[in-house]
Amino acid sequence: MKKHVKNNVYWVGKVDWELRKFHGEELSTHKGSTYNSYLIQEEKTVLIDTVWLPFAEEFVENLAGEIDLDKIDYIVINHGEIDHSGALPLLMKHIPDKPIYCTANAVKSLKGHYHQDWNFNVVKTGDRLDVGNGKELIFVEMPMLHWPDSMATYLTGDNILFSNDAFGQHLATEKLFNDEIDQCDLFYEAMKYYANILTPFSAILRKKLQEIAALNLPIEIIATSHGALWRENPLQIVEKYAQWAQDYRENQITVIYSTMWNGTKILAEKIAEGIQLADPDVTVKVFNIAKTDENDLITEVFKSKTVVVGSSTMGNSVLHPVAGFIHLMKGLKFRGKKAAAFGCYGWSGESVRIINELMKDAGFEIVAEGLRAQWNPDAEAQKAAVEYGKKIAMA
Asked: What is the pTM of this model?
């Protein structure tokens, strides 16, 4: 069912209520998602993006129920990833010669995915396409937001920015616009999306936001590829991105640990107690990484000014949930955050040193030598953990 966006612009996408993992198994999507495709029906009819491959048949059937597919004049693919282009091969079987407008890198990704040599028309920033009735599409390349092939498309007259993956959220909703849905869900999912996908590209994003601003394009709607469209004060999400791209942190310290026999858990809770005693205004959160969704935890790291990581020593090293999570943080290239380490051990006790090395390599500033406790922490070790927490809070 198509939904009205504005004037002659319609949403023709798919709501995926059941989606729980994305990018393979890399990203949790507890609240589903949407795959937003758009139909512009001016003198020229334009389809912007499609939907994920499992919904290709449904998408093409629904689209054919709304318009004669032969009436489509242009197809715009803002990004070649399969959640946006998945229905394109089936659609092109019906209209094989229709021109596809995309970036040069998108030609590479589309050919790489589907091994088809369609009627590609390469565009770059500032290129325009007349759609009639005095309106044009203006293309804006957005490389590495979040793939090298990404771009946004702007519709003059209606002042709609089809932003693709930028400014989106993985959030299934039958409502179309940001002012129609729960604001807590909206902004949490927008932050989680940024933290887990766009954080490594913050420096690029800062420059791109400046470039978009320099185009002086009035924006009344930001039509994303996932989740709600920004209609009410649409630039609020642009302002959020500008904040998040500036090595974002709140007054939060997050304690993350994995434990074998709960000794490291005891240290984690005592460290948190010490942090709160030293700084009652700071938000302190404690997570057992083995029992916590890692993408939700990345969102907490994103908000944190300091991350305290703990692990028991096992096999002269750290427990694998900790090693894997630090590797994930390294890939996201967090900047401007501090770190400290702790852990229990029975015999050799290397975990604290290894955590410090891994966190430093991941781009964190190490603010303390670390806290080690042998065996199950006794009263003296627990008191030391409280004092260590105070030290971290004052760092």
From this structure: 0.95
